[in-house]
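Table S7 (text form). Paired inputs.
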Amino acid sequence: MNQAMLLDLARQTVLLIIMLSAPVLAATLVIGLIVSIIQAVTQIQEMTLAFVPKILGVFLVLALFGPWMMNTMLTFTSNLFASLPSLVR
């Protein structure tokens, strides 16, 4: 395993992490922004008002994007295991 192969593997791993976390983070960001605007307009500062919609949004995003996320992770893992003999050399 040379340095170029290791850097390519690290790059692929970081890109996979970003791709898989982006839908959940984006949904949480949008929901948090909307809830914050509503709280600022109505002056209701209840902590559960900010927490519950985010949790529901995360569950919804995971339900919608879960199969794609799992397929992407399985593809990456199977490709990694398939290329393991060439990486060990």
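Next pair, protein 2 of 2.
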Amino acid sequence: MDMRKARECLIQEQNRRRELASRLRDHEANPADNSELSTVDQHQGELGTETFERERDLTTLTILESELEDIRQALRRIEQGTYEQCEECGKPIADERLDAKPWARYCIVHQAEMEKAVSARQ
């Protein structure tokens, strides 16, 4: 894998996610701009929709922040020379996987194990 290309891709993804996160934070910081100031005249369905949209935005923001941290770690691994190595087993992460998800931390085998462990806890 071309490390220069990987770094450029990661930086583009980082910038894209920062912009999205910034827009969501602005949206949450100024709720009056996005809904009515009073709930007195609102129908319950409208309140439910606003609540759902706010929860969706907060969940999306959490995911974006997690991905930003993963991207920061991937950029650090490029600097350390460990970018293409699985954090669990140290074996190479397939180029196809890194092309699809440049901030991948694990090979496909260990990623599946991590996801299975998380599912088992829920």
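The CA atoms of residues 62 and 72 lie 15 Å apart.
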